Amino acid sequence: MFLGCYTPPPFVHPAPAEVTMSDSLPATEPADPAIPAEVEAPTEEPVAATTSTFDDAEVEPYKGFTVKTPLSIVDEAGQPVAVLGKPGVEVTVLTEAALRVKVRCDGCDPVVTGYLQSDAVRR
């Protein structure tokens, strides 16, 4: 009869997921003191705001209206520039991509330009 001890290998914390751009409001990071220091986010330089991860296609500008609420119009870096709390806000679509459209919000005061989800705008 054998008696022995087994010690499992030490637990290695997985690296946090990287998010490069979001078409929604950015989430705030929890201030949880229980998170170990080795799980902190990497300290890489941010991507320049002029680079886009989407291929925007120029279109003939057309008028449209928002159909969802709440909506955030975000800039190139994903930071909100306007929050729309009601449907039917008039926008002018300037460029289109598979997941987003670049709009000028004519129904906003002041008028702002930014990005919305493509399914949030109807002609």
Arithmetic mean of pLDDT: 75
The CA-CA distance between the termini, in Å, is 79 Å
The number of helical segments is 0
User: Main sheet: which strands, in order across?
Assistant: 6-5-4-1-7
| Whole-angstrom Rg | 22 Å
> What's the β-strand tally?
7
* CATH class division of the domain at 57-122: Mainly Beta
Structural class from helices and strands?
mainly beta
Q: What's the CATH architecture of the domain at 57-122?
A: Roll
Strand content: 25-35%
Give the oligomeric state. Answer: single chain
Give a verbal description of the structure.
With 123 residues, this protein is an all-beta fold. The protein has a domain at 57-122: SH3 type barrels, CATH 2.30.30.40. The protein has strands at residues 57-66, 71-74, 80-84, 90-96, 100-105, 112-117, 121-122. The protein has a five-stranded antiparallel sheet, with no helix packed on it. A two-stranded antiparallel sheet has the order 2-3. The chain is elongated, with a radius of gyration of 22 Å. The termini are far apart.
Short summary of the structure?
With 123 residues, the protein is mainly beta. It has strands spanning 57-66, 71-74, 80-84, 90-96, 100-105, 112-117, 121-122. It has no helices and 7 strands.
Using brief descriptors, characterize the structure shown:
two-stranded antiparallel ribbon, 5-stranded antiparallel sheet, SH3 type barrels, 123 residues
Topology of this structure?
Elements: E1 57-66, E2 71-74, E3 80-84, E4 90-96, E5 100-105, E6 112-117, E7 121-122
Antiparallel strand pairs: 1-4, 1-7, 2-3, 4-5, 5-6
